Amino acid sequence: MQNPHDSNNVLIQREHPRIKTKPTRNQLNMQSTPNRASKIPRPGTMSPHVSQGSNSPSGNGSFQENKSPRSPVDVLTSIPAQSEIPLVSGLTQGLQDYNWEQLQGKYTDAMEEHGRVEEKLRVETAKLLEVFMAWSQTTVSQDENRALKRFKTQMQHVQNSEVIVENKKKHYAEVVKAFQTALALLNDQMKI
């Protein structure tokens, strides 16, 4: 996609060659990444690879066919020639010769095994959850029974206390009445 500012800069420089314009982001990107052939082998293509003591079929640096349909080197971009060292070329050779189908099979098997283990854990967790729910329901019903018994006991205590208070009230009323009658008799005797 071309930036509209690119064409404006070109027109300005044609009309006024002394005016310097700032390069756009696209121009900077194109300058910083020159079109250079990648030395990383791509899957399914013929890639030049200079073998250094490897067991290649021709052994003279000819083209080798990449056997895997897909490899992790797709992600990598071009590597400048100055930074390539024997270790990197050895690693890329190892990646090129690696059996990616076998790795994918191992990965699939491992994921299936983890899926089975996860399903087993899910079933076990569901069973434990059922036990916990039964325990919590039992605890709730026991707490409700205890609360009902406590409430009944408190009601009986309150009713007994009310009866006792009522009896004491009657007793005190009778005592007061007895004192009043005794006082009245005493007053009558003093008048005589």
* Rg, nearest Å: 50 Å
Strand order of the largest sheet: 1-2
Average of pLDDT:
73
Largest sheet: 2 strands, antiparallel
What is the number of helical segments per DSSP (H or I, 4+ residues)? 4
The secondary structure category is mainly alpha
- Percent of residues in helices: 55-70%
Cα-to-Cα separation, first versus last residue: 136 Å
User: Can you tell me the overall shape?
Assistant: rod-shaped
How many beta-strand runs?
2
Q: Can you tell me the residue ranges where pLDDT is under 50 for at least 5 consecutive residues?
A: 46-70
**What sequence of helices (H) and strands (E) makes up the elements?**
HHEEHH
Walk me through what this model shows.
- Residues 51-62 have a biased composition (Low complexity).
- The chain is built from four helices and two strands; from the N terminus they run H-H-E-E-H-H.
- By secondary structure, the chain is mainly alpha-helical.
- The chain has a two-stranded antiparallel sheet.
- Helices cover 65% and strands 3% of the residues.
- The protein has a domain at 1-30.
Question: What are its keywords?
Answer:
single chain; about 190 residues; mainly alpha; two-stranded antiparallel ribbon; 4 helices; about 65% helix; rod-shaped
Brief synopsis:
The protein is mostly helical and 192 residues long.
Ordered list of secondary-structure elements with their pairings:
Layout: H1 4-15, H2 25-32, E1 46-48, E2 63-65, H3 86-97, H4 100-191
Antiparallel strand pairs: 1-2
Biased composition (Polar residues): 1-11, 24-36
Biased composition (Low complexity): 51-62
Region (Disordered): 1-74
